[in-house]
Amino acid sequence: MSQPEATSVATQDELFSAGSTYLEQMYEQYLRDPESLAPQWVDYFSDMVAAGEALPETHQQILARMRPLPRSAKHHFDDIPSLAQHGDIEYPSRAILLIQAYRMHGHLHADLDPLRLNPRPSSPELELGYYGLSESDLEQEFPTGDLTGDRKMALGDIVMMLQRTYCSHIGPEFVHITDSARRHWIQSRLERIQSLPDYDEDTRRHIYGRIMHAEELERFLHTRYLGQKRFSLEGGESLIPMLDALVQRAGSGGTREIIMGMAHRGRLNVLANIMGKSLSDIFSEFEGTQFEDAAQGQGDVKYHKGFSSDVRTPSGIVHLSLGFNPSHLEIITPVVLGSVRARQCRRKDKSKVEVMSVLIHGDAAFAGQGVVAESLQLSKLRGFRIGGTIHIVVNNQIGFTVNPFDARSTTYCTDIAKIVQAPILHVNGDDPEACCLAAEIAVEYRNTFHEDIVIDLICYRRHGHNEADAPEVTQPEMYRRIGEHPTVGTLYRDRLIRDHILSNQDCDEMIAGYRDNLETVRRANNRRAPSPANSLQGRWEGFVFEGAEEPDTAVNADLLSDLARRVHRLPSGFSLHPKVEAIYENRIEMMDGKQPVDWGCGETMAYATLVHEGGWVRLTGEDSGRSTFFHRHAVVYDQNNGKSMIPLRQVENGPLSHFIVVDSMLSEMAVMGYEYGYSVAEPRALVIWEAQYGDFTNIGQVVVDQFIAAGETKWSRMSGLVLWLPHGYEGQGAEHSSARLERFLQLCAENNMQVVYPTTPAQLFHLFRRQLMSRVRKPLIMMGPKSMLRNKLSFSPFADFTDGAFLPVMGERHLATATPRRVIFCSGKVYYDLLAERQKREIEDVVLLRIERLYPFPADELRAEIDRYADTHEIFWVQEEPANQGAWLFVNSPIRQLLLPNQKIFGVTRPESAAPAVGSAKRHKQELEALLNAAFAEGVDGCLADRHRFDAPYEGSK
């Protein structure tokens, strides 16, 4: 609910921060019953009266003046017969207006909050008098319009039906949906049963069993592992039977896989009671006896881990998969969506029913974290839609210690879902049957309309944010009520006993049996340590974590020529833009060996060869179809009618041969997370996320830090995701220069990912082919070219595609001198600046050596190059970036370890800077000139000395 405990915690400073609507509600309550308010509020309004201020007319008083006058107002109608008998044409329609009001506002008066923390808001639209009706009209029959049931009903029966449907333990919100079919479906589905579950006795016993298991597991963990964090589900145990009902109904509807994501609250309970994770394994994780010396997968706490299992349903097995989730609560949301999309594509699940996503959120996180809104926006977009997600918000009505009125600006935490017009079912967490009904309705809606739907499970958190917390310090009233409130299990047990479905003895025996089982498992002497999770199975079978042979990425010349024609010659009648047509014709000549190969051609031919070989390629990003820099043109448009075409699909070859290119929405975090999830679910696809500019990846940094860089170490989950990040200093200001190379290098360890900066189209070609053809999957972080795209010095000879491979280090062999005075190491675009300057100065005694792969650091390849120049004393590292950025701080140490005793390394960089680059194009040129002067100078003045080895002072670059 919107403002728990506000009446008990309001202070003078908080009166207006709560908002004008809330203030007005307190004022109306003061007029009705001053004693019901907290003393602070009474004092506030009393002071206004004492000061002689004229109290304003309330909103409710204004409505009272505007509403139609009821027939029961005797002073007007003492001598007038019934309006219905005298042709009052408005009278029969007044019940229709009341029905519509309940559909719109009924949820505000539903019995949803187990703790009853908030007074229900005033809704005069739900009062009979608002429509000129009174209790004397209750027996009068009225037309019911599209209300499910008889065409005419007594007003009293109409009101009773509406209150049951919209004001009981399920409070639906759906009138914001503009699509009448979806709106009427929800309306009819609820009104037909008046939102009342009708489960048989066996089902109700089963629900109680689920509640009891959830409750007893938490109680057992609390007493046996006192003080350990577990982020318990206590207060929200109805989530367990709700998920159980959801899985069973989904399985009956043809779903074969359910991919779930959730944060840590209640995760252990879901793992045990829904996923079927061994209690023995869970206890071992609490005791710290799980395997500790395994090579993979021991890097995270127990309440972040995922799990997979198979569950029986009436219509067959449903595979459940719970994603591994870091502490950034909602970042799992797009990851799950991407995983589902990959699985649907693999299954050719055009109905979007076979694979379903279920996301379990916390109330504060769902309302507060922007990735939720980004992910919702993906739900209906081409290339991203998955046929709807079922969202379950475990609404504890608090975020750590923050009250809802400080955590959001909306009435409900679920209001954000209205941006995609998702229906929302608010449900009282103390009613497990209503929770199960809401889950079943959600599955039916999702599979009918292939749209998102939200269940707001309003419950509470029996303990603090974690079990060692003292929540009563900040929420005394809430936790006083929680302490007095019976548990969900107790309430439902009493209900079943009243209905003669279970007896006290039955319940006691069920509880005792489960407790004995828990204790038996915990005390077992032969309890084995959990086995390491085998992540190399299913779609990952045949892959390895380390040690795979290098694939042969070269391609036959005849095949390249043939594929170039098949990709770049379009059907007759398709009118290409003249510029694109020229680019396509040039590519054909490039693949005939008649021209050097440019970047757009090298990239396209990498895709073409992979897809022709039966491969699967997916490229997404902002403007990726055409490309930001007008070089790709993977999607072309007929200039006569605007219809689009993806020419690379003309070489698809096989059941899983796909080329997919998607222009994404203007989002980085959600889309990057989506593509990560896609790559983990489908290792046999080359998945590329392209940043429009490299700095845009900043917005997705949480995905990089918590999934891409650390996913294998924490969870033994590999990913082959490619991040393609334009990078290069070209005078375009601070935000369009750097992809923050230094941040990725800082994250590199344990061979967790690859960081590369290719400088030729052939290198790019072999990189992409290697990424898909290798039996190892590591994320590939690629600093991409910008100005290099049109720099002819960077273009590749055709032979590099037919005979070459990716080279981690690229040296030089053509210099006249065998003993240069200096060897310059560099990476990326600055090589071409150095090359042009060396040619301009006609320098012949300086060698330029490119490190194309910065991590894993190519020590062997670099050592071979260093040995060739054993008599050269000066080794320079030259980079465009400031001294505190770029690769210098990373490469300094590994290069130093490879140098010969007579060699020294010096750094040439821009000065240290808080921003990545300057804003002035003129100053940029001045800095570049200074950089090149230092690189080719006769001495080492102004260079960054290798202070670690030679005790030289660190002066910074000039």
The tally of beta strands, per DSSP, is 25
Low-confidence stretches: 1-19, 69-86, 947-958
CATH class of the largest domain: Alpha Beta
Q: Pairing-aware structural class of the strands and helices?
A: alpha/beta
Strand content: 5-15%
Identify the overall geometry: elongated
Terminal Cα separation, in Å? 60 Å
CATH homologous superfamily grouping of the largest domain: Thiamin diphosphate (ThDP)-binding fold, Pyr/PP domains
CATH topology of the largest domain: Rossmann fold
Estimated helix fraction:
25-40%
Radius of gyration: 34 Å
Structure description:
Its cofactor is thiamine diphosphate. Belongs to the alpha-ketoglutarate dehydrogenase family. E1 component of the 2-oxoglutarate dehydrogenase (OGDH) complex which catalyzes the decarboxylation of 2-oxoglutarate, the first step in the conversion of 2-oxoglutarate to succinyl-CoA and CO(2). Its EC number is 1.2.4.2. With 958 residues, the protein is of the alpha/beta class. It has four domains: 6-169, TPP helical domain (Helix Hairpins), CATH 1.10.287; 201-289 and 299-528, 3-Layer(aba) Sandwich (Rossmann fold); 557-728 and 738-802, Rossmann fold (3-Layer(aba) Sandwich); 819-950, Multifunctional 2-oxoglutarate metabolism enzyme, C-terminal domain (Rossmann fold), CATH 3.40.50.11610. Strand 9, helix 17 (432-449) and strand 10 (453-458) form a beta-alpha-beta unit. Helix 6 (94-105) runs parallel beside helix 7 (155-166), helix 9 (201-224) packs across helix 20 and helix 21 (557-568) packs across helix 23 (599-612).
